[in-house]
Amino acid sequence: MHKISVFLILLLVFSVFAGCDKKRVFDDYKSVNGEWHKDSIINFELGKLDSLRSYNLFINIRNNNDFKYSNLFLITEIRFPQGKVITDTLEYEMAAPSGEWLGKGFGDVKENKLWYKENVRFDEPGNYQVHIKHAMRKNGEVNGIDNLQGITHVGFRIENTSE
User: What NCBIfam families does the record point to (predicted)?
Assistant: First the structure.
């Protein structure tokens, strides 16, 4: 009986915290198991979005201490239903000059909520897709890093610009 009470309390607490995230429209993570191959593209199917609303877009990255770099370079694509593709090359700071991780979290894994785009409208009818891959290379080298260590999850989040 005691286990059922504890379970119900935990379920209630989780429901309260999950319900507080009123801005969330889409929030999904894909695991890369601590090693992200340079040819591995992380895909998110966004589905249909309200064409009358504006959204803020974020890339969420979870890293651990195996990530050996202070910055992260990403290439992103938004694929529109009618065939248009917007490609961006992005750079994000992952660590302070002191070496301390900028992400939040306890223990080894840190979560980074990285701005991607602001006040975006999805005005074409149909389903949208987002593709993300890393574009990391060592200084002075032409070829990219084959297997980027220390990234555990890649996420994509869409928030309403107003509640």
Answer: GldH_lipo
